[in-house]
Amino acid sequence: MDARFNMFENELAGRFFKRFANSAQVIHQSPLPPATQELVSLRASQINGCGWCIDMHTKEAVAAGETAVRLNLVAAWRESTVFTEAERAALALAEEGTRLADAYQGVSDETWARVREHYDDDQIAALVCLVSLINAANRLAVIVHQRGGSYQPGAFAAATS
Q1: Count of domains in the chain?
Q2: Is 92 helix (H, G, I), strand (E, B) or coil?
Q3: Measured between alpha carbons, how far is 111 from 70 in angstroms, rounded to an integer?
Q4: d(C-alpha 9, C-alpha 11), whole Å
């Protein structure tokens, strides 16, 4: 199935994506570890069923040296031994921040406390912004049926430079 609408060829969408990508650069340049950024983006994208973003973040993670074992276990991070406690806290925040409608309180106090144990204020700001941004990206791609499979590592960085 083809995408419903080509967001990459539309002038208004193009202007929006330029600004969207620039906001992503703030997060990419933050002190939040790049591996954590990719794992969080991948997990939120899995939950939201965004093939485009799963494709992008899996390939970017591999290009940055992430292992297949860790990438294959992101969906089952609670039942695996390959993630640090800090990464587990970030993945919990990603899940709860993505599934806001599933819990009246959103992110639990327990998860927030675990995040505070492992990250400083700048890293937390980046993490919260990242969860928000990847959820927005997922919605954009899912709404127009942007399919995964064709992404090439580095394409996002090239588009923002």
Answers
A1: 1
A2: helix
A3: 21
A4: 6
Mean of pLDDT over the chain: 92
What's at 117, amino acid-wise? E
Length of the chain in terms of residues written: 161
**CATH code at position 56:** 1.20.1290.10
Q: Cβ(127)–Cβ(90) under 8 Å? A: yes
Does 160 fall in a domain?
A: no
Structural domain harbouring 24: 11-75+82-150
- Alpha carbons 63 and 147: distance in angstroms, whole number: 20
Query: Apex CA 21: angle with CA 66 and CA 127, to 5°?
Result: 55
At how many degrees (to 10) do helices 51-63 and 34-48 cross? 160
Task: Give the Cα separation of 46 and 74 in Å (integer).
Answer: 9
How many Å from the N-terminal Cα to the C-terminal Cα in the chain?
Answer: 31
Query: What are 56-84's pLDDT values in tens digits?
Result: 999 999 999 999 999 999 999 999 999 99
Residue type, 113: A
